[in-house]
Design a protein that fits this description.
The protein is α+β, with helices and mostly antiparallel strands and about 850 residues long. Helix 4 packs across helix 6 (about 375-390).
């Protein structure tokens, strides 16, 4: 029986695309937004061609639109009926097959619920967000990704304001009081990619030899915009070379808006970005918005030019865009950054699979399409493309992508279109690959063990799949790269690439069962065993190679994933050689990502030696490692750790300071409360430091923190701080019983907060509190919340709260006591180990099987 929750919530049903009676050829919008009145007047003129014979009515998606008139291009008034969700137009005489009709709908919108968003704080502006099915909230249309058409937009704004739409800016005319912007998008695209943004934006051109590239920020944020979007021209060049298809549109713009409900939205040629990525010089020390800029730019090919046929196939949009974040990192920063980015994505997917639900990537069983936009779609989809790179080789994959994009440009696609492109380009039959990794839920859980047969000079490698394997869930079939290296390299070689080391015997193991042992004859025992060095296989891993080989891997393998797997194994191993290797690698590994993972593993071990190693690296040269060290130190509660964390408040990195404050709260040190209260008033980009202080107060288990956090949650405080305070209040409510009722009340209020992102944070807070008093509100919002993402969050939170009610109330205390006992056991083990002589190393022993 599966231990994973079902992805499908009550009320979910198989979703299929609608029937089509007409092709939409063109949409022309004339829009007059009134930001002060939160109103927009519009005229949407649509041209259609009949597919069948006859077509006597059209049913358009149109939610909450005040329809004023519907007229044909010849001036005839058309009969129509407007409901809360649709606009039905009668056609008399009916359209014959192949006949075209142009009709104009005059309408208005006031204080819209969705689709069109007016920012009420200064400087006031307005933006649209149409994915997945919200275009219908701001213009009448056939709102489905399989409907693609050319578009044009005339946007009328007061003088001094700017307006952005899709495509080429063909006209900008300034009158006495108003400025008219005219845009034309000549390549067909889906309605969810249509955009309009208006307000007092600054316009900055970025140099490129072929594509006009612009970014737009609100006044005073121009330099922050350059830090966030400055790499975009280079990204265009990298993606054109990789995909083999030129950037397809006449220009590319990025505009940063306030209160955006996502990170970014890839509107065709005119991406909307959240202004949360605009950052100052200090943040730029260890923060980059390249991940978002590269993701949305990649969508211009994958999602905009080539669009999923329906939302069940949305990984062809999002998985590709996520993978191209890694492609950009490889081009900009090297192979190690690429591999670590893929590795991180796999870990986030595995976390969702383990803790939230399991589903196939391609899935049409849902209530709202937005439910699919999760880590299965983004991160697992990206990992599948990395796996394809390992399966085919980079050159063959790039040729396949060029064929896929070239043959399907301006079309809608399903996964089979990608399969056919690969097969046509390479001759490889990829049906089993996609059935296993895209259409099947889950992934293999792999344990690799090793033994050296000195008498026969054979390396025996056992690959076991430890997930449930039965007739309904067969073992996965995949190729596993294995490298066996004669002599240990002197040091880690950064950005070494996917190839073998000098003297490495690289073999490919065909894995297709629950457990299989491979015998590899060698002239001598290998000094280094490299298992899946490039991380091609999408799996969770347990490495059981033995201490010596784990140490060798940690200190000499050029590839980050094997070093990280070795670090995790050594942190659990705990013997003297393991401890020394971890301390050395934490201080000296040349790649920050491995340092981060070592710090995390040491923190989880709670061993005395781990504490020492972390304290010794509180001043590590890389800020991201210092951040991880600070977080890890929060696993100890002693004066020296708290003193070290207090000293990290002077770090040049906002994020290190924030992590130190959060960890300081976990230490429960007497000095922590005053330091955390002071941290709440420390200015920083996006309230990073104050948010860390708030989270520290939540972990402090001090009832004095509650009124401080309630003050941070006030409506007039900044959104990032309010979100952090909300989570902290929930944590405090689980730690201090006297605060619990007020914590429940605060979370319940936040469930209906006007701030979308505050509401988004309220649901995990409700889950953390795990209090039945929140169930009526959660049940109500699971149905009544207007946003599909929040409806799902409410339903999931209610399910988990009900599950939590069956657990003993003392469970959290029991877990804390278990952690304490484990830490004491590890400390005792280390003390005993110090009294035990070191055994001979492999080089000193005549026979040293692992």
């Amino acid at each position: 029986m599966s231990e994973h929750r079902s992805f499908a919530l009550p009320g979910a049903r198989p979703q299929f695309g609608p029937d089509k009676t007409v092709d939409v050829l063109h949409i022309d919008l004339r829009l007059s937004p009134d930001i002060e009145r939160e109103r927009m007047d519009g005229v949407c003129t649509t041209t259609v061609r009949a597919i069948e014979d006859p077509v006597d009515r059209l049913v358009l998606d149109a939610v909450d639109l005040d329809i004023r008139s519907v007229t044909a291009s010849d001036g005839r008034a058309l009969t129509y009926r407007s409901t809360a969700e649709t606009l039905e137009i009668a056609l008399d005489p009916p359209l014959r097959k192949g006949a075209e009709l142009e009709f104009a709908v005059e309408y208005a919108i006031e204080q819209p619920r969705r689709g069109l968003y007016f920012v009420r704080r200064e400087p006031r502006h307005v933006w649209t967000q149409s994915q997945d099915s919200d275009a219908r909230y701001w213009f009448p249309c056939f709102d489905y990704p399989a409907e693609k058409q050319t578009t044009s937009a005339t946007i009328v704004v007061p003088n001094g304001q700017f307006a952005l739409g899709n495509g080429a800016l063909v006209e900008r005319t300034e009158g006495q009081a108003e400025t008219v912007y005219r845009y034309e998008q000549r390549i067909p695209h889906a309605t969810y990619l249509v955009t309009m943004v208006a307000g007092p934006f600054s316009e900055i051109a970025q140099p490129h030899d072929r594509v006009p590239i612009w970014y737009y920020t609100l006044p005073g944020r121009e330099a922050d915009g350059e830090r966030a979007f400055g790499q975009t021209p280079r990204m265009v060049d990298v993606f054109e070379r990789t995909i083999g298809v030129p950037y397809p549109y006449e220009r590319y713009s990025q505009i940063a808006v306030a209160d955006f409900v996502f990170g970014g939205m890839e509107n065709t040629s005119a991406t909307t970005q959240t202004d949360r990525v605009l950052h100052d010089e200090r943040a730029h020390l260890d923060y980059s918005a390249d991940y978002l800029a590269s993701h949305e730019l990649a969508h211009q090919w994958f999602g905009d030019l080539v669009t999923c046929r329906d939302w069940s196939q949305a990984w062809l949009n999002e998985g590709f865009a996520t993978y191209f974040e890694s492609v950009w990192l490889e081009a900009d920063k090297g192979w190690d950054e690429y591999l670590y980015d893929v590795f991180g994505g796999v870990q986030r997917y595995i976390e969702e699979d383990a803790e939230r639900y399991r589903r196939p990537i391609v899935c049409n069983l849902f209530r709202d399409p937005i439910e699919l936009f999760d880590r299965h779609l983004y991160e697992k989809g990206s990992a599948v493309l990395h796996m394809l790179r390992g399966e085919l080789g980079w050159d063959r994959l790039k040729r396949s992508l060029q064929r896929y994009v070239g043959e399907n440009a301006q079309r809608n696609v399903e996964t089979i279109d990608l399969v056919r492109a690969i097969e046509a380009e390479t001759g490889r039959n990829m049906r089993r690959f996609f059935a296993q990794w895209v259409e099947r839920a889950g992934h293999p859980q792999i344990e690799v063990s090793y033994a050296w047969d000195a008498e026969r000079k054979i390396a025996r490698v056992t690959v076991a799949q430890t997930q449930p394997v039965d007739d309904a869930n067969p073992a996965y079939a995949f190729d596993l790269e294995l490298g066996l290296v004669d002599a240990l390299p002197d040091a880690v070689r950064p950005d070494f690439g996917a190839g073998p080391l000098p003297g490495e015997n690289r073999v490919t193991l065909a894995v297709d069962g629950r457990s299989r042992t491979f015998a590899i004859p060698l002239e001598r025992e290998p000094a280094l065993v490299r298992v899946d060095p490039s991380g091609w296989v999408l799996a969770s891993w347990k490495s059981s190679l033995g201490t010596d080989l784990h140490v060798a891997s940690l200190l000499a393998d050029p590839s980050p994933p094997p070093r990280i797997r070795a670090a995790k194994a050594l942190a659990k191993d705990g013997n003297r050689a393991a401890r020394e290797a971890l301390a050395r690698a934490l201080a000296h590994d040349p790649f920050w990502g491995v340092g981060v993972e070592i710090a995390v593993a040491l923190g989880k071990s709670r061993a005395p030696s781990a504490r020492t190693a972390l304290l010794n690296n509180a001043g590590h040269s890389h800020p991201k490692v210092r951040r991880a060290v600070a977080e890890a130190l929060g696993n100890w509660r002693d004066e020296a750790v708290a003193t070290a964390l207090l000293s990290m408040r002077d770090d040049p990195s906002y994020f290190v300071v924030a992590s130190a404050l959060r960890a300081l709260g976990k230490t429960r040190d007497p000095r922590a409360f005053d330091a955390l209260v002071a941290g709440l008033s420390t200015p920083s980009w996006m309230e990073t430091i104050a948010s860390g202080a708030a989270r520290g107060l939540g972990a402090l288990a001090d009832e004095r923190a509650l009124p401080v956090l309630e003050d941070a949650l006030r409506p007039d405080r900044s959104e990032p701080l309010r979100r952090a305070a909300l989570g902290a209040i929930a944590q405090l409510g689980t730690l201090v019983e006297t605060t619990r009722t007020r914590a429940v009340e605060a979370v319940e209020r936040a469930l209906t907060d006007p701030g979308y992102l505050v509401r988004l944070s309220a649901y995990p807070a409700a889950e953390k509190l795990d209090d039945a008093r929140l169930l009526p509100a959660l049940d109500r919002l699971a149905v009544a919340e207007d946003d599909g993402r929040l409806r799902r969050d409410a339903a999931e939170a209610a399910i988990r709260v009900r599950e939590g009610r069956s657990k003993p109330a003392e469970l959290a205390l029991l877990r804390e006591e278990l952690d304490r006992l484990r830490a004491e056991s590890q400390a005792l083990r280390e003390r005993l180990d110090e009294l035990t002589p070191l055994r001979p190393s492999r080089s000193e022993s005549s026979d040293a099987p692992v």
